[in-house]
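Q: What structure does this chain adopt?
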Amino acid sequence: MTIRVGTRASRLAMAQATLAADGLRALGQTVAIVPLSTIGDRDRRSSFAELGGRGIFASEIEGALLAGRIDVAVHSAKDLTDVEGAGLVIAACLERADPRDAWCGPASSLAAVAAGGRVGTASLRRRSQLGRLRADLVVEGLRGNVDTRLRKRTERRLDGILLAACGLDRLGLGAEIGFRFTVEEMVPESGQGIIALQVRAGEEGLVAGLDHPTSSLALAAERACTRRLAGGCTVPVAAHAASTDTGWTFRGYVGSPDGSTALEEVATGADPLTLAGLVTERLQARGGSALLEAAR
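A:
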């Protein structure tokens, strides 16, 4: 049997699918990678919110999985909605790469960016948190794959653009990074840095041997938090679970689109799912739900 691995056709998505395929081959499987098109790839002009938010890079791949055209879907976990599609299950996660956000540009720190500098991003989460850190910066919308956005930074003479550090690392583009934000400065997107392998329910055994349990547990906790806070909408919300020598640290964030109002909560303990619930409750108690409702 040949396992058909479905993925977006972008260079980064193909690199991620190759990691999964290589893992399956190491387990003795025969694998074929199947590139697929998504609405998020075809429409490079509309904003993420206009296209429907999270899921625009995943829904059509999930449809191919349900239809039996592929056997395994490979996703950047941050592209998935927080609600599992009927008949589908995330059966494995590859070990998490660097979850942090990266500044691509000549500056070596945020303090080194000139006042009023122009920054490109399509992410409401990044826009909100950058506004909290440096309200003077001018944020401009920026869509496209990694290579396109790096090219547009130069063409539009932007001072910097914000991208996921893991994607740049996976493409060998780490030299483009001026600096990486700490998770305390900019809370990552739920699932950022994790490659998720999705299959039809009942076929988990296809990829179970590739699962990295710590990464899977972190993803489950982060998705639980953002599911309760965001309710599937495109709003400035973030969650990050990190395993430490003594347990787990869980961090949650909600903010206004410009970052002028922002709430953050942190909890530590033994179980990230419990911590996710605690952080969510604290954010809601402080007015997080009303803040996100206004952002909608």
